[in-house]
Amino acid sequence: ELKVEQNPLFLSMQEGKNYTIYCNYSTTSDRLYWYRQDPGKSLESLFVLLSNGAVKQEGRLMASLDTKARLSTLHITAAVHDLSATYFCAVEFHRGSTLGRLYFGRGTQLTVWP
Amino acid sequence: DTEVTQTPKHLVMGMTNKKSLKCEQHMGHRAMYWYKQKAKKPPELMFVYSYEKLSINESVPSRFSPECPNSSLLNLHLHALQPEDSALYLCASSQDWSGGQPQHFGDGTRLSIL
């Protein structure tokens, strides 16, 4: 079964600092998604990465995908308090003829403090 | 506001009750999903409907019964639930099940079993 590992699971960072969240997965896939979840809220789609070398940026967040290394990163630049949330990566996997389903990482709980 | 609408937002029920969760989307999506999410955990896939047909049942106990009356609606019928079934139940939809598109999540129903 596909395994998706995120690290760190908890991240406390000061405003203005940079940091990277890592998402490793165990089986070949070229489709990876990043979601954000605020406490008690739903999941919001942040990035869709569909090929090796894909890079997407939105504001202070940038996501990339290296399918050969089976690694995606979510880089945070100059963090602000509003980025505090839990971030999930999810890998899409096709098993045989079965169409794709998502396998989620455990999530990274990010807290940004002044 | 999300484009996937779930009702009710909160539900408290006894172990002998029968209740239903409802999910609606009007984006023309042909794949719909039910997930269960426990606190501080990633969503766990329960069911997938593709073109109104059940395509995946992740070995979910029979006390959960999904139904897809039409392409816009998805229900989850609940009967004789256990306390461990208390969780946030999320509905999601995507354009179809061929992959490569993000899933859009509703705000969820927070279910408590007494």
Explained architecture:
The complex is a heterodimer of chains A (114) and B (114). Chain A has 114 residues and is mostly beta strands. Chain A contains no helices and 11 strands. In chain A, strands 2, 4, 5, 9, 10 and 11 form a 6-stranded mixed β-sheet that branches. A 5-stranded antiparallel β-sheet of chain A has the order 1-3-8-7-6, with no helix packed on it. Chain A is globular. The mean pLDDT of chain A is 93. Chain B is built from no helices and 11 strands. Chain B is globular. In chain B, a hairpin with a 2-residue loop joins strand 5 and strand 6. In chain B, the strands form 2 sheets. In chain B, strands 2, 4, 5, 6, 9, 10 and 11 form a 7-stranded mixed β-sheet that branches. In chain B, strands 1-3-8-7 form a 4-stranded antiparallel β-sheet, with no helix packed on it. By secondary structure, chain B is an all-beta fold. Chains A and B meet through strand 5, strand 9 and strand 10 of A and strand 5 and strand 10 of B.
Cα distance spanning the termini of chain B: 30 Å
Number of helices of chain B: 0
**Helix/sheet category of chain B:** mainly beta
Helix and strand run of chain B: EEEEEEEEEEE
Low-confidence stretches of chain B: none
Largest interface by residue count?
Answer: A-B, 25 and 25 residues
Mean pLDDT over the residues of chain A: 93
Total number of beta strands of chain B: 11
Rg over alpha carbons of chain B: 13 Å
